[in-house]
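Exercise 7. Predict the joint structure of the components listed below.
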Amino acid sequence: MLIEQLINGITLGSIYAIVALGFTLVFGVLGIVNMGHGEIFMFGAFIGVLVTTTFGLPLWLAFLAAIIVTAFMGYLLERFALRPLRNHQGSNHLAPLISTIGVSIFLENLSHHLFGPGNHPFRTPFAEMSIEIGSVTVYLVQIVIFVISLILMAALSFWLGKTKAGKALRAVAENLETASLLGVDTKKYITLTVILASAMGGIAGILVGMAFNAVTPQMGLSMGLKGLAIIILGGMGNVKGAMVGGLILGLAETFIVVYGDSGYRDAIAFIAIIVILLVRPQGLFGQKTSDVRR
Amino acid sequence: MVLEIKKVSKNFGGLSALTDVSFSINKGEIFGLIGPNGAGKTTMFNLVTSIFPTSSGDIIFKGEKINELKPHLITEKGICRTFQNIRLFPQMTTVENVMVGVHSRSSSGVLKSVFRPKSQRQEEEGIKVKSQDLLKFVGLEGYEEVVAENLSYGQQRRLEIARAMASDPELLLLDEPAAGMNETETEDLFQLIKRIQQKGITVLLIEHDMPLVMNLCDRIAVLNFGVKIAEGTPKEIQDNPEVIEAYLGREEDELDA
Amino acid sequence: MLAELINPYYLQVGSFMLINIILGISMYITLSTGQLSLANAGFMGIGAYTSALLTIHFSLPIPVGVVIGAIFAGLLGIVVGLPTLRLKGVFLAIVTLGFGEVIRVIFVNWESLTKGSVGLSGIPHMGRELLKTVKELGFEPKMLGLQNNQFIFMAIFLILLVIVIFVIWFFKRQNDSRIGRAFSAIKLDEQAAESMGINITYYKVLAFAQGALLSGFAGALFAHMLGYISPADFAYHKAIDILIFAVLGGSEVIWGPAFGAFFLTLLPEVLRFISEYRYMIYGVIIVVMMVVRPQGLIDLNVVKWIKRKTTRRGLKNGTGN
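Solution:
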């Protein structure tokens, strides 16, 4: 019982971590909180439902389709809701936050019209496969989710830290103007960042659909809110922090359902961040930013 | 003594911006703080006005330790400043900018501000008159209703001085007030700072315009790489070999710019 | 004659409009210090539930319930504001959004008190209570040629109208004072404001608490206007509604969010087909406004322009007479 709950918690936490990675990537590079990320994630899940359940096509095709669609949505989001704001200088620092809220509310209601409200089941034979270890049942999906989240985290860390593109991205993150003076094509890298983050959201969407066998237009909002909570928990723009923050939240939620009052599950994330903000405003893993930077 | 800087150091993430700097400023004098770019002058201003905490050392204003106070309390104690890269409230009018400066010397709260008893109306009138007087003092008469961002560069610098003076400071910190000014404007500024001194206000000045500094200041301290390398009268500073070395080591033209 | 003009439906729409104007202004006050708070829907809920529960269980008169509800929301604003307002803008937005969620979760789960997601009903109704009182004093709506129904909706509308006028007057006066200057100095340059002697924490918490108080006030009025409330009335979508009043109308001057609330309450009533696509349209409006006119439709220049127009017309009329 305990071990199964532990596994459930880790699975949930891994999903949260993948969603949070998308937020972290965009925040780390652009200094922007992309409120539309949760809805892009939700679209990824719906693409999965369409491909596997509606058209009965194989799962790998669902992943491919979700990645393509969400990456394209990321491009559109950057092109229409973020890039125009960068161009007129001196505009309010809240503008990108508010415009991505606009995107999120648009996408949520678009999905209501496209897919209809309510629960959409996500049927794939893969989701039913499980292995028994002693008295404990582990679903294959759970292992896959955990592994994928680790791979994504490692890949992202490597890509940001070791590759040329990653270095360029960090230059952009450090200072947009300097980066463009150094000859970094900032527009390209910003677009790439948003696209990448969105595609990761799409992957997370399918994984969640499989794990819970349910996809709804509202899931983007609740997952988005939790992703935001996690990046505050783990430290804004911190890849490891997003992973650990996600796992902590996933476990906490799972155990409050088992040992506490399940109704309050959705409130934990925010109670946690309010506490964190009081005690350690830079997040669990965030660097204490020197006062000079902003 | 108005201000005492006692062995003040400041580190930013391992990099030391100031190391064990000490000097003190007497009441009524104009004190210059000079040094090559990056020597830590503006950092010193930010420490005095508590924008950053000091890493070690004390800052004493009129016998009271102030380096753990919040910035707005520093202003209340009687220290106010201008900024190197002008930081007016750009969309406010000129007179509104100065009126904000009077904030710490006025007291009407929410209810008084809304229901406006006589005391509030008098205070508000006083703020307005004082602000207009200050604009006249810095030579911005007639610009009261102009939006600050539409003023010329030199005018914006003077408006910043008026705004800082609105808080009735005993010590006024001016961060490169002559930057970007032409010769006539600089001459006007010289006269303005002299007149500020005549009002009994002590001035701490950061400036790169050496003729201005040498003519204006009673005493000068020189910083280089965060360390004080000299202190004395303008004459002493000009003859100090270490100072000449520090400047020649960098850009040659800075000393006589 | 009068009786035919007084259509309860129009009055109802008008009353919603007035409540929304108060909510728009609550957003504006917090924004006037440069802080984006998305908690106003939550505070609205706090005010609504507090007043509703007090009037139901303790039979307090409605005005007392409303005032306590508003004050309680304001106090909670101070409690939430103090720790969070030390944070930069983006954090504040997220934390306040989360706060709204926590409030909603509590409303849904504290069933013994709040009746869960079904919500509270049987809340004393402003209009009916007033009718009862005036009837006891020997007044009958028929004396004005009105039906009871018309009297009720008319009374609500007028009460709200007076309240809205007072709220606008109050915050316009505050804005045009030492307090208002401190608010806008903080909005324009926080660090410079602090260096000019403004206690930025105090004023940010003040603005946040005023916003909370006003949202709570609007919520309490809402509860007694409808007579029933549920957690869904104060959820994320309400927060977005309030946000868009300020985004579309503008947050530079108080008339901006008031206009936004007026216009966006009217729009779905006039153009029926819009209501189905309402939030999609809202989403597009938000993005377009941020790109094209981030200060909102009504900014300082528009107000000046209108003033010039109206004074000129006034002069013309003057000479005509």
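Discussion. The interface with chain A takes residues 34, 36, 83-84, 86-91, 93-95, 97-99, 101-102, 105-106, 108-109, 236, 240, 243, 247, 277, 279-280, 282-287, 290-291, 294 of chain C (CB under 8 Å).
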